[in-house]
Amino acid sequence: MENLNIVLFQPEIPQNTGNIGRTCVLTNSKLHLIKPLGFSLDEKQLKRAGLDYWPELNLEIHESFEEFREKYKDGNFYFCTTKGAKNHSDAKFQKGDFLIFGRESSGLPQEVRDVNPEGCIRVPMVNTTTRSLNLSNTVSIIAYEALRQIGYPEMK
């Protein structure tokens, strides 16, 4: 079983997805991509960002958010958004949780966040004109907090 499930809702930037894929390989996490994607999965930039780790990636692609939700309806979902009411470090993570992240340009849409408003979490940031942290950085921050809480299984 994977430590975590990292879910990217309609990702737009191949380099971010490649970096996140590398993080997934090195943390025994599964990467889920929800279409439409803003790039082709065989783009050079995507594979370059993932380097030689990309062939080892546990990857699943979903045609829509609805298809994904139906397949994993019994999963424990956290919606990672700047609009979350609680900090990521206040969540109580478990092995196999699904961490869902939105598009680089617009985040998670309201209808996705409305699936479980109590499950909306955020990384605290100072209030500036900058929208938010880079997606791949945010994934790493939240994933490693979740891994810390579950005891870094299979990691040394």
UniProtKB/TrEMBL annotation:
GO terms for cellular component: cytoplasm. The keyword Transmembrane does not apply. Keywords: Cytoplasm, Methyltransferase, S-adenosyl-L-methionine, Transferase, tRNA processing. It is an enzyme of class 2 (transferase). It is found in: Cytoplasm. Could methylate the ribose at the nucleotide 34 wobble position in tRNA. This is Putative tRNA (cytidine(34)-2'-O)-methyltransferase. It comes from Clostridium collagenovorans DSM 3089. The lineage of its organism: Bacteria, Bacillati, Bacillota, Clostridia, Eubacteriales.
